[in-house]
From TrEMBL:
It comes from Sphingomonas kyungheensis. InterPro entries: PqqD-rel_X. The lineage of its organism: Bacteria, Pseudomonadati, Pseudomonadota, Alphaproteobacteria, Sphingomonadales. It comes from the Bacteria. This is HPr-rel-A system PqqD family peptide chaperone.
Length: 88
């Protein structure tokens, strides 16, 4: 399964030290994201990716402590429920 983030125009972001605040314009909800959720969202904003491609890019570009398939699947599920990521 592939995943994608909303269009950048749908998100308003602000860096807050260890967190990123993301206002999702369509829902009117503000989310606070920490690593690796914000990195996942950034990568999926570039192009839709499947889990394996996303895991490889996370490992390549970021120092993510829990870069396992199970951990990534859990974070993706959370982002889908929050409405910040869409499964394709």
């Amino acid at each position: 399964m592939r995943y994608r983030a909303p269009d950048a125009a749908a998100l308003l972001t602000a860096e807050l030290d260890a967190f990123t605040a993301i206002f999702h314009r369509p829902s009117g909800i503000t989310h606070l994201l920490a690593s690796p959720a914000r990195e996942i969202l950034a990568l999926l904003g570039e192009e839709p990716l499947d889990g394996d491609m996303l895991l490889a890019r996370l490992a390549d570009r970021y120092d993510v402590a829990d870069a396992t398939r199970d951990a990534l699947a859990a974070r993706l599920d959370e982002l889908v429920v929050a409405g910040l990521v869409e499964p394709l």
